[in-house]
Design goal:
By secondary structure, the protein is mainly β. The chain contains 2 helices and 13 strands. It has a single domain, classed as Jelly Rolls (Sandwich). Helix content is about 5%, strand content about 40%. The strands form 3 sheets. The protein has a 6-stranded antiparallel β-sheet, with no helix packed on it. The chain has a 5-stranded antiparallel β-sheet with strand order 9-8-11-6-13, with no helix packed on it. It starts with a strand and ends in a 12-residue tail after the last helix.
């Protein structure tokens, strides 16, 4: 596998080796030994799967207690995936990185604890899978507003269009109002 640090070096774009032939393909999406050898000694406790339609934006979510690291990937369709650094002690606090993840490119993103995470569906539909390093804790969940101008995520939306949001995402808070990490 190939691991590339993005502009925020703790967020990693992971490209697995894909073995394909006329029958289809095979790839290892998770191998504890291989990831540990690459410096990612992770203990996942939960797997999640969401399906969303074109234009759906999920996020930007995080848990202030029991923060979750997430290994995310797309198995059908394409999304624009975003991580925002919410660690006040980080030189990258309030900055974001993004990557297009798709079934075709088979890439994954490692989003460490201390980051808000979200994605916008670019294809007609997308199936999004992710592993987490801690359990979901609803009372600790927080949401950074998807269009916070101080963060300035450049979502690939058609001019004049708005994403489809869940009520909790539409009610997200601005970075200046958020409870963040030390």
């Amino acid at each position: 596998m190939n691991i590339e640090a993005l502009a925020i070096p703790e967020v990693l774009l992971i490209t697995p080796r894909v073995f394909g032939d006329a029958r289809g393909f095979f790839l290892e999406s998770w191998n504890r030994r291989s990831f540990a050898a690459a410096g990612l000694d992770l203990d996942f406790v939960q797997d999640n799967h969401s399906r969303s339609q074109r234009g759906v934006l999920r996020g930007l979510h995080y848990q202030i207690r029991q923060p979750q690291g997430k290994l995310v990937r797309v198995v059908a369709g394409e999304v624009f995936d975003v991580a925002v650094d919410l660690r006040r002690s980080s030189p990258h606090f309030g900055r974001w990185v993004g990557a297009r993840l798709s079934a075709d490119n088979a890439q994954m993103l490692w989003v460490p604890p201390g980051f808000a995470h979200g994605f916008l569906v670019l294809s007609e539909q997308a199936d999004f899978l992710y592993k987490t390093t801690d359990y979901y804790l609803p009372e600790a969940e927080r949401c950074l507003r998807w269009d916070d101008p101080s963060v300035g995520v450049q979502w690939p939306l058609a001019p004049g269009s708005q994403p489809t949001l869940a009520a909790k995402d539409a009610a997200g808070s601005l970075l200046a109002q958020l409870e963040c990490f030390p």
